[in-house]
Amino acid sequence: MRVNRDHYETFERMHYVCFHYEFEHGLADADADPDEDCGAPGCPSAPAARHQDRMVATLRSLAADWSAGPPANWENRSLPDYLEAMAAWLQDCEGYYANRGVPFPGNGWEVVQDAVRAAVVYE
Q1: Nearest C-alpha neighbor of 110 from the set 48, 68, 57
Q2: Measured between alpha carbons, how far is 51 from 111 in angstroms, rounded to an integer?
Q3: How far is it, in rounded angstroms, from Cα 78 to Cα 119?
Q4: Does residue 94 contact residue 101 with C-beta atoms inside 8 Å?
Q5: What is the pLDDT of residues 74-107, one digit of tens each?
Q6: Dihedral sign, CA of 111, 117, 118, 119?
Q7: From 18, 23, 89, 104, which residue has the greatest number of CB atoms within 10 Å?
Q8: How far apart are CA 47 and CA 90, in angstroms?
Q9: Distance, CA of 85 to CA of 107 (rounded, Å)
């Protein structure tokens, strides 16, 4: 770190939401609205309805996978196996986000959407 070396400790100790609004949300722009989703992953201003709509679409897509019977590309092809995989993924999900270098989502809909997708193949 060279540019903001003097402020490194401050940045590292900031809460994600505070850091996001201060440095990532684009509030320096006079037309920026803190209540609008800025599009960054995990933006705390993202409307829950948008995430709910995505979650519903994900569930419908997964259900469509079963239209001709158990899908060949699913590891967990029974409800108990699928639910156990989802529970295991949720228990380990902080590592999932950390390994990808992205902040833990501030919206529960995002976490559940990732969980239902992951449970298809998670062991």
Answers
A1: 48
A2: 10
A3: 11
A4: no
A5: 999 999 999 999 999 999 999 999 999 988 887 7
A6: positive
A7: 89
A8: 22
A9: 21
Integer angstrom CA distances of residue 15 from 37, 44, 55, 79: 18, 12, 27, 38
Task: Name residue 67's beta-bridge partners.
Answer: 69
The greatest distance separating any two alpha carbons of the chain, rounded to the nearest whole angstrom, comes to: 60
Backbone angles phi, psi at 94, to 5 degrees: -60, -40
Do 17 and 44 form a contact (C-beta atoms < 8 A)?
Answer: yes
Supply φ then ψ for residue 87, to 5 degrees: -60, -45
Which residues does 11 contact at the CB level (< 8 Å), separation at least 6?
4, 19
Question: Within 13 A of 17's CA, how many CA atoms are on the CB side?
Answer: 8
pLDDT in the model for residue 105 = 85
